[in-house]
Amino acid sequence: MAAKSAAIRKSSHGSENFIQKLVKNPKISFAIALLIADSILVALIIAYVPYTKIDWDAYMSQVTGFLEGERDYSNLKGDTGPLVYPAGFLYIYSAIQYVTGGQVYPAQILFGFLYILDLAIVVFIYLKTDVVPWWALSLLSLSKRVHSIFVLRLFNDCFATTLLHAALVSIICQKWHLGLVIFSGAVSIKMNVLLYAPPLLLLMVKAMDIVGVISALAGAALVQILIGLPFILSHPASYLSNAFNLGRVFIHFWSVNFKFVPEDIFVSKAFALSLLVAHLSLLLVFAHYRWCRHEGGLLAVVRSKIIQLKLRVSQRNPSSTKKVLQADHIVTTMFVGNFIGIICARSLHYQFYSWYFYCLPYLLWKTPFPTLLRLFLFAAVEFCWNVFPSNTYSSLVLLSVHLIVLGGLWISSPEYPYVEKTTDKSTSKKAR
């Protein structure tokens, strides 16, 4: 009886603490209300807005071929063409086909839950970083296009995006190896997640010793091998060339960005190469002058790791050199790195908006812009993504807004990257 009474008192005390947290932190209350309101909105969309069939039949055809025993990627095709996603896509949509019987309506309900799960993960990231004011969290629920991508189109981008956000949560919580495993799982569904790879690698180098970096990367590589193993063992060339084709050229008509570029230039190798050079150059400039500013630049970070490796090899300093990174620094580096990739992408289809929409409020509030300008830029991006078909003007506006946001991120003050521990080992504080 005494133990039962103590348990009741402990449960009551825990409930009181939770209520006190809700009262003291309006962000938590608002986040819960936001999730409930968006759940109702998603249910109404599924019930009353007509479904638009785009890739679903192709997905089901490709999955059916896989389930019937086909292991040659070149033979897995649908009405939109051959399969171009890694094998994780097949496993996910095989499970969906099993659960839903290949029917659209139950799949929409499943994707509705996925949308709310993804939103909850993103809200958690925003609460951990505390960059965006509580009322601005509502922006995460205001995209007509993103709601459509999830529950009216059922694109595989939704699963890749959700896993990416889950990986980011693991990394924020300093679970780097788990985060890399989840990240690799996201890549196995759609390769766009690799846009996050350069900033992620930099963060790993800053936070971990060389052994930790190598073991985490090995874990991510092992996930890819295991997921693709049935295809690698039977038709390796077909799997690698189709699932990881980095040279695909998208149709000019369907692109939301660079629509103002003439089609003959748009599909040219010269244009693709120029965008790649711009992408890599921007990553290097931001890495050197922004993300590694407090360490003395990118070269200083690399030099310090080389020195640590030499000391470790000589066994003069075998101890670990792990550092704890601020959540703000992790999220900023990841979101900005991905955003640079979005700006330099030759083609963005409508479902690709999910690749970076959830970054937008965070990135806008990392700029020094006034609130009204932030809201205007957010609305402008959303407007461009809802123009169908895209045209010269909407494409120019989208690129202009992207560049304005990137400029704002460049002139903003970079956050201090590391958590500084106090004399009390159980606590830590941010450097000011």
Task: Please tag this protein with its features.
18 helices, mainly alpha, two-stranded antiparallel sheet, 432 residues, disordered C terminus
Condensed summary:
It is built from 18 helices and 4 strands. The protein is mostly helical. It is globular.
What report would you give on this structure?
Its EC number is 2.4.1.258. By secondary structure, the chain is mainly α. 65% of the residues lie in helices and 2% in strands. The chain is built from 18 helices and four strands. Strand 1 (77-78) and strand 2 (81-82) form a beta hairpin. It is globular and about 55 Å long. Residues 422-432 have low confidence and may be disordered.
**Category from helices, strands and their pairing:** mainly alpha
Task: Indicate the radius of gyration in whole angstroms.
Answer: 23 Å
Q: Write the element-wise H/E pattern from the N-terminal end onward.
A: HHHEEHHHHHHHHHHHHHHHEE
What is the count of DSSP helices, taking H or I runs of 4+ residues?
Answer: 18
Identify the overall geometry. Answer: globular
Assign a percent range to the helix content.
55-70%
- Average pLDDT, rounded to a whole number, is 89
The oligomeric status of these chains comes to single chain
Largest sheet: 2 strands, antiparallel
Q: Tell me the strand percentage band.
A: under 5%
Question: Can you count the beta strands?
Answer: 4
Q: Note poorly predicted spans.
A: 422-432
- N-C termini distance: 50 Å
How are the strands of the largest sheet arranged? 1-2
